Each structure stands twice: as C-alpha cells, then as structure tokens.
Amino acid sequence: MIRLEDAKKIIEAAEVKAKEIGQPMNIAVADAGGNLIAHVRMDGAWLGSIDISIKKAFTSRAFDISTKDLGDNSQPGQQFYGIHASNDGKVMIFAGGIPLKKDGQVVGAIGVSGGSGEQDHAVAEAGVAAF
C-alpha cells in the first residue's frame, strides 16, 4: 500500500530530478487501484500535462508496465497496437509512467509529464528510486 506520506517522498525526489535537468513537470502518484493519491504541478509546467501525468500513473498501474515499454509495444504491427484507445482514452503510451513495487508486487505507480519522453522517464525513475 502507498500512503500519502510515501507519495509525498516520491514526488519530492522526482521534483529534485526535474529541477536538476531544468524541466518543470507534473508528477502524479497512484495507488494499487490506479486512483490518484497526490499530484504536483511544478511552477511553469504545462497545463496540458496535468491530465497526461495522471493518466500515465493510471496506465502503469492498470497494466503493470512502464508507459515507455507499453508505447514501444503499441506501435503498428506490435502486440499492443491500438491499446491507447481502451479504457475510455485513459491509456497513455508516452514514456513517464512507471509501476511502484514493494516486495515484488505492484502497489501503485508514478506518472510524469512536461518534458521529452526521455526527461519524463528519468524524472519518474527518480521518484521510483525514492520509494
């Protein structure tokens, strides 16, 4: 289980990485049910990325896979092609969503949006490392 206290630590670590790379981000943490626990929009982060960060966290938890890997596997001809149209459009296939695991079991996810896919994924990884 991820508590609010955990989510705040995850977000704080992600914010540190975002500041380090000079890219303001939206950072969301979801619980085991894919429900939002906490969200932060850093000063200057894109408004459009609020929704994307939340949906990246949902997607990572819903499928227990990073959105980067899901995106790689959802291109034309790949096994998950078209998955982004499922779940009433809540599925994001851009890098930046990563499952959060405890004792080998997925207990939630982080979703980050506001930069390039590479930047989003790196910031999400920093949040995961803090968990």
Explain this structure:
The protein is of the alpha+beta class and 131 residues long. The chain has one domain: Haem-degrading domain (Beta-Lactamase, 2-Layer Sandwich), CATH 3.30.450. 41% of the residues lie in helices and 20% in strands. The protein is built from 4 helices and 4 strands, in the order H-E-E-H-H-E-E-H. It has a 4-stranded antiparallel β-sheet. The radius of gyration is 13 Å and the shape is globular. The model has no long low-confidence stretch (mean pLDDT 97).
Quick overview of this protein structure:
The protein is an alpha+beta fold and 131 residues long. 41% of the residues lie in helices and 20% in strands.
List keywords for this structure.
131 residues; alpha+beta; Beta-Lactamase; 4-stranded antiparallel sheet; 4 helices; 20% strand; GlcG_carb_metab_protein; PduO/GlcC-like_sf; PduO/GlcC-like
> What composes the largest sheet?
4 strands, antiparallel
Low-confidence stretches: none
Instruction: Kindly state the percentage of residues in helix.
Output: 40-55%
Number of discrete domains: 1
Highest CATH level, the class? Alpha Beta
Secondary-structure arrangement, i.e. CATH architecture: 2-Layer Sandwich
Strand content: 15-25%
Pfam families: HbpS-like (PF03928)
Task: Describe the protein's topology.
Layout: H1 4-21, E1 26-30, E2 36-41, H2 48-63, H3 67-72, E3 97-102, E4 105-113, H4 117-130
Antiparallel strand pairs: 1-2, 1-4, 3-4
Helix pairs in contact: 1-4
